[in-house]
Each structure stands twice: as structure tokens, then as C-alpha cells.
Design a protein that fits this description.
- The protein is of the alpha+beta class.
- The chain has a single domain, classed as GMP Synthetase, Chain A, domain 3 (2-Layer Sandwich).
- The chain is built from five helices and three strands.
- Strands 1-2-3 form a three-stranded mixed beta sheet.
- Helix 2 packs across helix 5.
Amino acid sequence: MSNPKDKYEPKPIKSVLKDIIAQKPLKKGVQQIRICNAWAETMGEHIASYTDEVRFSHNTLYVTLHSAPLKMELSYGLDDLVKRINEHLEGNYVQKIALI
């Protein structure tokens, strides 16, 4: 007779979490969180401190800033910012950044 413990081999927690996140409803939500967090990670603490809100919808990253001069300065290099964020995410997720 076979031992019931033979059926279940231990898996690394990383593998189990990856399987859970790969489920369709969770994958989209986790992806949106990663994309929103990429703003602060690529821009640094200084610019993140002027950021009020970051949202991602329909391939556009909406960033609310409470500094008009910073908003104006960043608006000149939006294409480079899109490229930097997509490189950080290792994919082509963000098509446009809208500064609000």
C-alpha cells in the first residue's frame, strides 16, 4: 500500500505563491500594484514625496503631484519616464503617463 505522504511533495513557498498569483483575477490586481509602485521605485524618494496618488488604467499611469514646478519639469521628459518604468517592470505595460 502506498503512503499518503508520497502524494504530496513539499514545494517551495515561492512556487506556491507564484501559482496563486497566476490565477486570472489576482494577476491583474498584483500587476497594477507593481506598476503603481514602479513610479516611486524609479523616480526616487524625493519625487515620491511630492506624489499624492498613482493610478494605472488602460495602459496609462496617472500621477497626481502637488508641486506645479515639478509637474512642469517632468512633463518635458514623459517619453523617457515611460521607457524607464517599462525597463524597471521588464515589460511594455505603460504606454503613457498623465501628470495631474
